[in-house]
Amino acid sequence: MSSRTSSGSLIALPPLPFDENALSPAISERTISFHYHKHHAGYVEKLNTLIADTPYAGLSLDEIVKRTAGKADAKSIFNNAAQAWNHSFYWHSLSPKREQPGGALKAKIDQDLGGLEKLKESLAKSANEHFGSGWAWLIMTEDKLAVVDTADADTPFAHGKTCLLTIDVWEHAYYLDYQNLRPKHTEAVINEHLNWSIASARFDQAAR
Ligand code: FE
After folding, report:
1. Cα separation of 148 and 196, whole Å?
2. I want to staple 43 with a disulfide (CB 3.0 to 4.6 A). Which of 73, 83, 128, 200 is the partner?
3. From CA 89, how far away is CA 98, in angstroms rounded?
4. What is the CA(7)–ligand 1 centre distance, in A?
């Protein structure tokens, strides 16, 4: 971690919610290992270095993302904070089990997006057609579900949206397993490993 000297707690790297081999073969243990220990950990470490002795030191990750969004003089802090936030969110968007949406979320998917198959198509299109590095998301915007993509570190959370699920479409998320074939990775994640139970819980929380 950093050699910061100011008081205030460091932003922590949260533990992975599953074993590193739990999503194999859709996402290999090697990919998860590099992704978590090198990329995610790297963003957290860089963030802690950048915020040392700034007014952002000691704030929660949520607060740092919200307060630095759109600020030209805090671009590096935002990028590393948002990437730390996105990766924590991403790990919890994945499940070792094959799941289906249920309850109120399922009804809302039918109502707003024309059903689960349409949502999957839309999410795949968003992930596959996003140009360059970024993220594909299922979000709540006002009172409707929507599928969107964001570039680089940007996150709907920074813009006041409620995030339900995300897929990382940076090359580091799939290149060891699929090389340039991003759609194959997208398909495997969408069909086998989206965490619909956590998406439902996030939806219920937002709808309260
Ligand atoms: Fe990533």
Report:
1. 18
2. 83
3. 19
4. 29
Q: State in Å: Cα 58 to ligand 1 middle.
A: 25
Ligand 1 center from residue 159 Cα (angstroms): 20
Interval between CA 107 and ligand 1 midpoint (Å)? 31
Task: Give the tens place of pLDDT for each residue, 38-86.
Answer: 999 999 999 999 999 999 999 999 999 999 999 999 999 999 999 999 9
Q: Look at residue 8 in the predicted model and tell me its pLDDT.
A: 57
Query: What are the chain's domains?
Result: 29-92 (1.10.287.990), 103-206 (3.55.40.20)
Locate the DSSP E strands across the chain. 134-141, 144-151, 162-168
Residues 6+ apart with CB under 8 A from 109: 101, 115, 116, 119, 145
- Centre of ligand 1 to C-alpha 178, Å, is 15
